[in-house]
Amino acid sequence: MDYSNLRRQIIFMKKSFFDQGYLDEQFNQLEELQDESSPNFVEEVVALFLKDSPRLLINIEQAIEKYPQDFYRLDSLVHQLKGSASSIGAVRMKNECSVLKAHGNDKNLEGCRRSLQKMKREHATLKQKLESYFQLLRQVGPRNSAVNSRK
Amino acid sequence: MDRRRIRVLLVEDEEIHRVVARAVLRGAGADVDEAENGAEAVRLVRERIGGGGGGAYDLILTDRQMPVMDGHEATRRIRAMGVATPIVAVSSDCLPSDVHAFTAAGADDFTPKPLTKEKLGHILAKFQLA
Fold first, then answer.
1. A/B interface, count of CB pairs below 8 Å
2. Residue A11 located in a structural domain
3. Does some domain include residue A105?
4. CB contact under 8 A, A79 and B93
5. What is the pLDDT of residues B15-71, one digit of tens each?
6. Cis bond leading into A142, ω under 30°?
7. How many domains in chain A?
8. At A151, is the pLDDT very low, low, confident or very high (cuts 50, 70, 90)?
């Protein structure tokens, strides 16, 4: 197996996440926390995000449709999703949460719906990119991966 | 010099935030106890200062929004027990009014989520726990 080529692909893929604005510095922070005692730490945190976020998106959609009855619940759900996205450095999703929150505060229902659709697309793209990234990392294996490389 | 590990109480209801904060804290050499809501936090603090509890925590990190009892109320009750342990709010709500509310409840400092090595470093230095 050509590890050096795979490592290059991994580095290039990760760089593209940052260059295209999907991820921010927090992702690097997670990688710095990964070590021999928690060798899959980043993937585990991302898995938590990907486990919680689909349910949150569904609940947000329901809260929007029940507006204004569920306004506080909507605010709370978006707050949760925003926090979760920040934990992994998912900056686009985090920012879209702020937009949705603002629309909610302005009672702009159409704005909320547009923002939610945008978040769902962002989420799907991010999920696919991160899953590809971790798949590559698994191919390289813990000893050979250059995850903590800051080149 | 006594280099015993510092004892931190992490108060946070959401798993993803607990996982990240726990890793940051352990990375800094801390022993971490966790509470998933303010009521649990108050109980753990009370146990600690009771006889045989091992002494007060060196630091308490708390979120705001939690079920059962939120961070403001937990902070108020911990202070009401006469506990002087530094309490730092780690919260996503970062408006001046949020910070003020925590300070009024008795918190010593405030940092936005997520917790990072750098933020923890500042906290430990500020409260002379490094």
1. 45
2. yes
3. yes
4. yes
5. 999 999 999 999 999 999 999 999 999 999 999 888 666 789 999 999 999 999 999
6. no
7. 1
8. very low
CB atoms within 10 A of CB A22: 19
Structure tokens given for A82 = 């925003």
User: Contact A41/B92, CB-based, under 8 Å?
Assistant: no
The enclosing H or E element of B8 equals: strand B7-11
DSSP letters of A33-86? H-BTTBTTHHHHHHHHHHHHHHHHHHHHHHHHHTTTTTHHHHHHHHHHHHHHHH
Instruction: Determine the distance in angstroms separating the CA of A67 from the nearest CA of chain B, rounded to an integer.
Output: 22
**What is the pTM (predicted TM-score) of this model?**
0.91
Is A147 part of a structural domain of the chain? no
Q: Which among A64, A128, A125 is positioned nearest to A93, based on CA atoms?
A: A125
Examine the pLDDT at A59 and tell me if it is beyond 80: yes
Shortest CB distance from A49 goes to which of B16, B113, B117? B16
The answer to whether A55 faces chain B, any CB pair under 8 Å, is no
State the DSSP H helix or E strand holding residue B61, giving kind and residue range, or none if neither.
strand B59-62
The ipTM (two decimal places) reads: 0.88
Helices (DSSP H) in B1-129: which residue ranges? 15-27, 38-49, 71-80, 96-105, 117-126
| Residue A83 to residue B113, Cβ atoms within 8 A | yes
Task: Determine whether the interchain pair A86/B117 forms a contact, defined as Cβ–Cβ distance below 8 Å.
Answer: no
Q: Please list every residue in chain A whose beta carbon sits closer than 8 Å to the beta carbon of residue B98.
A: none
Q: Domain of A10?
A: 3-32+39-139
- Measured between beta carbons, the chain B residues lying within 8 angstroms of A84 are 14, 16
What's A28's domain CATH number? 1.20.120.160
Burial class (CB in 10 A: 0-12, 13-18, 19+), A50: middle
Is A92 within a domain? yes
> Which residues in chain A have their CB less than 8 angstroms from residue B92's CB?
79, 82-83, 86
